[in-house]
Design brief:
369 residues; alpha/beta; Rossmann fold; seven-stranded mixed sheet; 10 helices; 15 strands
């Protein structure tokens, strides 16, 4: 991560992340109202889970399912104690059902995206490649239509590209300055819509205000302690998310699964026990023809002792060969036509290892056809 200014960089080294300050969190919660049914909410950059847990309690903990994603192992362990389900991992490495959440609390990492060895940042856009915009792109699809966005970012991130996304994807946009001014954050509220009319006066006004705030031309008003506007009602969930997991398995999750399932050892007998069992005898004595056929097919093998005392170790097999038949016919003009017919034929072969001490062929492998 390439951070923008030293003060923020020092804070990153000290704390590792930038949690929402408590005054801003408390005032943002006053702008939210619960639906009448069960709700699902998500924080894809949850930190220790305090923010999304407070949102769940403000909306009514018994009717809210809180989901979280956190990259850091220790913070994810703490978040799991506060939310219903938490993924420890990178948001870009998760599979989460689209349009499954009524509220998206998004306080993403801040900074520029670094380039890899090939000069790529992984950012799908035309403007400045920022972490905030990358996380917005990835998280937007999680929010259901009519759902509420709470987006907390530094105000200077609001370039023409990001503002265009916000005014296209959200109606009833409101922007306020965070109570804690150290990181120059703004809090943006919006309601997800399928497509906003970019030519409408309301959208033009919202776009102009957001651009002016992003360019330091205008200053957003501070988030009010008492919300006077109509609240943003979090809609009821369409159902539990069908998918909510990390694509690559967590190391600890993998270790837990191995410990729980014990690998393949419990099913060892089911897989290999049959090979260790002696074959059952036939229902009746085999005829000479059956014995020869079973021996040639490889069903019978091992040590064989003949009546005259000779001992062989035998192994039967069968391979497919071809027989050639040539037919000649005389044509009407007196010429002769030759027809070659190839016919498949199964040839039984028995390999016998002579084990008699005084045999002239002791130790040799004999082929019986």
């Amino acid at each position: 991560m390439a951070l923008m200014f030293p003060r923020l960089a020092r804070n990153f080294v000290k704390n590792g992340y930038f949690p929402t300050d408590e005054p801003t969190l408390e005032r943002a919660l006053s702008a939210l109202a619960p639906a009448s049914g069960p709700m699902s909410i998500i924080d894809p950059c949850a930190g220790e889970g305090a923010a999304i847990a407070e949102v769940a309690h403000a909306l009514g903990r018994k009717q809210v399912q809180a989901y979280a994603v956190e990259y850091d192992v220790e913070r994810a362990r703490h978040a799991r104690q506060l939310v219903d389900r938490c993924i420890q991992g990178d948001l870009m490495d998760t599979l989460i059902s689209r349009h499954a959440f009524g509220l998206l609390w998004l306080n993403p990492p801040y900074g520029n995206l670094n380039k890899d060895a090939n000069g790529n940042t992984g950012y799908q856009g035309q403007g400045c490649a920022r972490l905030e915009k990358l996380f917005y792109q990835r998280a937007l699809g999680l929010l259901q239509y009519g759902g509420v966005l709470v987006f907390i970012v530094p105000h200077y991130v609001l370039d023409a590209e990001l503002v265009g996304w916000l005014t296209r994807h959200f109606a009833d946009l409101q922007i306020y300055r965070a109570v804690e001014t150290q990181f120059r954050q703004v809090v943006i509220f919006g309601r997800r819509t399928r497509q906003c009319d970019q030519a409408s006066n309301a959208v033009k006004t919202a776009r102009e205000l957001l651009l002016q705030i992003g360019q330091d031309i205008a200053l957003a008003g501070e988030l009010p302690p008492d919300w006077a506007l109509p609240p943003y009602t979090v809609p009821a969930a369409p159902g539990e998310p069908e998918h909510f997991y990390r694509v690559t398995m967590e190391p600890q999750q993998f270790a837990d699964e191995v410990g729980r399932l014990q690998g393949l050892w419990p099913s060892l007998d089911a897989h290999l026990g049959v090979a260790q069992q002696l074959p059952r005898p036939p229902a009746r004595a085999l005829s000479q023809w059956h014995l020869a056929l079973a021996l040639a097919a490889g069903a019978i093998s091992g040590t064989v002792r003949s009546r005259n005392g000779r001992v062989f170790v035998v192994k039967g097999d069968t391979h497919k060969g071809k027989t050639l038949q040539i037919e000649y016919t005389e044509r009407d003009d007196g010429s002769v036509a030759e027809t070659r017919i190839l016919t498949d034929k199964f040839v039984p072969v028995i390999r016998a290892w002579d084990m008699m001490p005084d045999s002239a062929t002791r130790g040799e492998v004999l082929t019986i056809r």
